[in-house]
Amino acid sequence: MVSILQKDSYGPEYLVEIHDPSLGMEGFLVIDNTALGPGKGGIRMTEDVSAEEVARLARAMTWKNALAGIPFGGAKAGIQWNASEQNDAHSASARKKEYVQSFARRIAPFIPKLYIAGPDVNSGAEEMRWFAEAIGKWNAATGKPSDFCFVASSGKKKCGLPHELGSTGFGVAHAARVALELKGLPIKKATAAIEGYGNVGSFAHQFLQEMGIRVVAAVDRKGGIYHDPGLDAKSLRFLKAQGKSVAEYPHGKKLSRDDLFNLAVDVLIPASVTDVITDAHKNKIQAKIIVEGANIPMKEHIEEHLWKRKVLVVPDIIANAGGVISSYAEYRGYSPKKMFALVEERIEKVVREVLTKSLQEGVSARTAALGIARLRIERARA
Fold it and tell me: Which of 7, 75, 353, 381 counts the most CB atoms within 10 A of its CB?
């Protein structure tokens, strides 16, 4: 594994490949950089997760945590998991728990000094409970269920802050708001389209709607829908809770992911998985702003191309930092109310700082963000 991953002066510090022969479980842990604190990053559970993908995500977490101004370094984990191979939902859950806890026990020597886990694709609050229970340390992971608590030596009670509260989507919505303001576009007249309707996309929709931004299109794995008067977040969430697609929304017209990427909206939010925006899309995108709700939804050369086309791209390392800011709030034992206030404050601050630097210096937002992040890490190592 080590030979195929790029290394530089920032990391990665640890590259760990995990195999449990009795279960057939395969996993990866990449601790990229710990200059600012223990590596922080979620556990991605997909069929094709790879060492390369985990390493890219770990590096993104290094920058994201530095930019958010929280005392965490960058890391990421991945477990190869295919739910469709299980016979039924009960056996899938039991098997998944075995995978998560086997993985946890094998990387326990790194926790929590060098790595703290968190939710990601196909892992949520319950998986974080399993993870922490396997190691016997409450602070082994964040994003745990709200009823998973412990009393610290100081006497303070600390409880989980599950990402199901919507912290990442909340941050994405506020990143969109700040970008619209800096672009000079009125919030109440703005339109948005969301690709991916899981935890991030659905909460981003809810909070955008509360701001008065009209979400006219949404797509999930099974299809999409366009409705110019606006899609109702509550109705779409109800459909998803029933196991249905957003495409079954009773109003509007059906559309594909490619159709959504081509819409002339003010804000486009990719909120699913890595590399969904490709070279095939880069000349067809008509959105004025792209807010990256997903981690690495496109390669950097595509971002640069869009920036040259005057599309304002708010990169993932600032746009979707709400989740890791929430993780820090949980680590400190904050209440949900205090957590949301912290997310709004930090997201607004970093998005304004990065986009202002980008516009003043004539560089892409990612270039501006990386310059700030690198400086903070280098100062910490000095």
Answer: 75
Residues 118 and 227 in one domain: no
Residues 209 and 357 in one domain: yes
Partnered with residue 14 across adjacent β-strands are: 31
Nearest Cα residue to 161 out of 181, 182, 177, 139: 139
Q: Can you give the pLDDT at residue 181?
A: 97
Distances (CA, A) of 313 to 7, 183, 269, 320: 27, 11, 10, 13
Q: Is 144 annotated in the active site?
A: no
Residues 111 and 182 reside in one and the same domain: no
Cα 120 to Cα 122: distance, rounded to the nearest angstrom: 6
Task: Classify 216 as helix, strand or coil.
Answer: strand
Tens-place pLDDT, residues 172-220: 999 999 999 999 999 999 999 999 999 999 999 999 999 999 999 999 9
Can you read off the two tokens belonging to residue 43? 């556990």
Label residue 106 exposed, middle or buried (CB < 10 Å: 0-12, 13-18, 19+).
middle
**Residues of the domain holding 309:** 167-322+350-370
Structure tokens, 152: 């610290």
Decide the pairing of beta strands 43-46 and 14-20: unpaired
Number of H helices, E strands in the chain: 12, 15
Catalytic: which of 40, 64, 76, 96?
A: 76
